[in-house]
Give the backbone structure.
Amino acid sequence: MYDGIVQDLIDEFGRLPGIGPKSAQRIVFHILQTPNFDVSRLSHLLADVRDKVRFCEICGNVSEQERCAICRDPRRNATLICVVEDAKDVAAIERTREFRGLYHVLGGAISPIAGIGPDDLRIASLMQRLADGTVQEVILATNPNLEGEATATYLSRLLHTLQITVTRLASGLPVGGDLEYADEVTLGRAFEGRRSM
Ligand SMILES: [Zn+2]
């Protein structure tokens, strides 16, 4: 335990996801002991990420404009939409360089325990995107865990009525895991081996 500001900052970092008290302490001491650590750049970026970054009005990915860089890119294949739970999953899939289509971020997964139902996800906006017949395949890339599987099953039933191929990423992804933590090779292979639902 420290006095005043040092402890306040440790507590503040410690509240962030994935940072325990030890890591928080390490960060604060790194700042204290590094004379040229650019505190103002860090604080500006923190303010900027809150003020200037929003979610793409089409796909829900993070973006500094109304439409994200992927949705704005005319070279992307508009007949393919990859449905993911989280904007972090978009980044994970982009790193594989296997996928050249567009994305749709649901903003979570169906979880009765957490009280998250289909209406809490960006499913209506997905259906809107599919309405004009441009999209020929929807790839369900929700996480390979209970909630992700439930969400994929729900969506595949919903999409069954449309003339669209619905596929799910191949197995090989660690079951129970998060897509964002899968390595690029595994995730890339899962894309190549996606199966019809
Ligand atoms: Zn977008």
